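Continuing the series of single-chain predictions for the mutant panel. This is the parent chain; the variants come on the following pages.
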Amino acid sequence: MRYRSLYKHESVNSLAIPIWATKFFGSNQQPLKLSYKIIGTLFNVWNEIGYSHKEKYIQKAIANDFRKNNISFKEQVKIDLKFEGDKIGTYFLDFLVE
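Parent structure:
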């Protein structure tokens, strides 16, 4: 099943921002525009290669599309998981965006 992207990368700067979003974000709509770009990237990868590939290949495709769309990110970021100030584990984020 193919999904059509509701978010076009080329038109991110001219998106019609919903009224609820302007109330939530106020005049700073950068987080909303970034969200549209990220979701558009994910739809693009899904439409192009689907879901039946290993995670590492999907991650490479997402990273390539992030680069094409000038989304700054880091891959495989190591973070400490803490509970009440004590380290209880380590976690790796697939992506840390901007």
